[in-house]
Amino acid sequence: TLVDLKWRWNLFIFILTYTVAWLFMASMWWVIAYMRGDLNKAHDDSYTPCVANVYNFPSAFLFFIETEATIGYGYRYITDKCPEGIILFLFQSILGSIVDAFLIGCMFIKMSQPKKRAETLMFSEHAAISMRDGKLTLMFRVGNLRNSHMVSAQIRCKLLKSRQTPEGEFLPLDQLELDVGFSTGADQLFLVSPLTICHVIDAKSPFYDLSQRSMQTEQFEIVVILEGIVETTG
């Protein structure tokens, strides 16, 4: 859900999560100091508090930030007289790692999503059937509008249509593979310039038994899937 949200909501949740987590953990440190009475004896040199130099909520918040961000100014630190502080410190470390991994991972995935990149891959508006190399061929074109290459680009075609099996079962959305060079390796594209993709209408093709007139009246759809790795982001 976070990856699919708009950037403004993503940033809002990112900031809100960190803010709430920080305030919650700082409150836990303040509660420990309050329960132990450290707030009233913070300036007593003969008393050993749970966390040195924590005497109000802002100082507890600063101690949490120093610990979480590993800044380590050295002015505030946990003493060995506070087992509950050590337990809270371990919990804080685990929770901080989980929050960082989750939110930063979501942001990284969102930044590397190729949604805008997909808009620069263009297909021809129409497909055509004509003779090519002496064979009746279904053809369309695909092109890359950006200078950056698509690595390991591969193209596939699916024919979607309804059909009835010999047993009488009706399949409303049957999927058939259209061979666009799988056997010869022509489906592996080197997409540096617009390419013409070809499907030979031979005895293995779903279009082999269709005439020109029946193809115009037949209800079907061809879905073209172009997969590849964006060179700049991987």
Automatic annotation (TrEMBL):
- GO cellular component annotations of the record: monoatomic ion channel complex; plasma membrane
Domain Inward rectifier potassium channel C-terminal: start-end pairs: 121-234
Q: Which InterPro entries match?
A: Ig_E-set (IPR014756), IRK_C (IPR041647), K_chnl_inward-rec_Kir (IPR016449), K_chnl_inward-rec_Kir3.1 (IPR003274), K_chnl_inward-rec_Kir_cyto (IPR013518), Kir_TM (IPR040445)
Q: Which residue spans traverse the membrane?
A: 12-35, 47-65, 85-109
Q: Which domain of life is it from?
A: Eukaryota
Q: Which residues form the Potassium channel inwardly rectifying transmembrane domain?
A: 1-114
Q: Which UniProt keywords apply?
A: Ion channel, Ion transport, Membrane, Potassium, Potassium transport, Transmembrane, Transmembrane helix, Transport, Voltage-gated channel
GO terms for MF: G-protein activated inward rectifier potassium channel activity
SUPFAM superfamilies hit by this protein: E set domains, Voltage-gated potassium channels
A Pfam short name: IRK_C
Q: Name one GO biological process term.
A: potassium ion import across plasma membrane
Predominant cellular place of this UniProt entry's protein: membrane
Topological type in the membrane: Multi-pass membrane protein
**Could you say which protein family the record assigns here?**
Belongs to the inward rectifier-type potassium channel (TC 1.A.2.1) family. KCNJ3 subfamily.
The reactions it catalyses are: K(+)(in) = K(+)(out)
Q: What is this protein called?
A: G protein-activated inward rectifier potassium channel 1
Q: Where in the cell is it found?
A: Membrane
